[in-house]
Specification:
101 residues
Amino acid sequence: MQINDFLTWQMLAGFSCMAAAVGVLTQFFKGLFDKLPVRVPTRAVSYIFALLLLFGTTYFTADAGASEYFLCPVNAVFVSFSSNGAFDFIKSLSDKGDGDA
């Protein structure tokens, strides 16, 4: 594995890798959305990143027709929910300090 292959479109096509990437991007960029004059919920930011990554992954990894692109908004809901849930779980562990969820 070369250093350029740390994250590839093929790896990103997997559900767990996609959810992790959405979580990282959301946490990294959510501060930019806080500075907008209109409040944008973090869950909406997560959905936007999931949708963009799914469209990109579909474009770069599959010989996709229209049907694959129509599923991207639905799949983005699942990716966004799992990413948000993982973040909430980790945050609850760090808030309690004792390891009980």
